[in-house]
Amino acid sequence: MEHLWAPWRNLYVQDPQKIAGNVFARIAQSSDDEANYVLSRGKACFAVLNVYPYNTGHLMILPYRETGALEDLSDDETLEMMTMLKKMKAALTAAFQPHGFNIGINLGAAAGAGVEQHLHIHLVPRWRNDANFMTTTAETRVHPNDLAATYAAIKKQL
Q1: What does the alpha-carbon distance between residue 121 and residue 82 come to, in Å, rounded to a whole number?
Q2: pTM higher than 0.90 for the full model?
Q3: According to the model, what pLDDT value does residue 52 have?
Q4: What domain range is 151 assigned to?
Q5: Are residues 45 and 81 in contact, defined by beta-carbon separation less than 8 angstroms?
């Protein structure tokens, strides 16, 4: 029998509230971008790897300002987030050559927002046939790269 080890998930499994709260606000205010997997920073927003990714390279774009409402974003914040989204898509394409992307925003807990008080745009690279039997039968995802290697590959393209 094969085993998949994911010790970084233990914090979430033991106490999901511990990582929620103001995790994005804390990352936004931190200066240790590498430790927090922050890929890029702008004036109004930043891009960060998702530490619980659906696929290799799954990242998020967030405003620095904490809000859970899309209509609360200023036009400048909205424009910069979309510009950052395009920049991150180009970097992911150069680093990993995905066949497609899922882009989404979950607004509210009922829509699947894990941290509903701080909206974020998900950018998820996709490859043909990337949903294998592990996802289908075991509700487990297999990632060919760890977060540090993924971070380094994307940063190299930026």
Answers
A1: 9
A2: no
A3: 85
A4: 7-157
A5: yes
Count of residues for the chain? 158
Query: Is residue 23 a part of any domain in this protein?
Result: yes
Asked if 101 and 124 count as a contact pair (C-beta separation under 8 A), the reply is: yes
> Can you tell me the distance from the alpha carbon of 123 to that of 57, in angstroms, rounded to the nearest whole number?
8
Main-chain phi, psi angles of 122, to 5 degrees: -90, 135
* Residue 2 is assigned to a structural domain of this protein: no
Position with higher pLDDT, 9 vs 104: 104
Buried b or exposed e, range 138-157, using 16+ CB within 10 angstroms? eeebebeeeeeebbebbbee
Answer left, alpha or beta for residue 22, where phi above 0 means left and psi between -120 and 50 means alpha: alpha
The three-state secondary structure class of 26 is helix
β partners of residue 104:
122
CATH code for position 128: 3.30.428.10
Distances in Å between the alpha carbon of 15 and those of 12, 21, 47, 147? 5, 12, 25, 21
Task: Give the residue numbers annotated as catalytic, written as ranges.
Answer: 120
Q: What is the pLDDT of residue 134?
A: 47
Tally the domains of the chain. 1
Q: Which of 133, 115, 139 is nearest to 12 (CA)?
A: 115
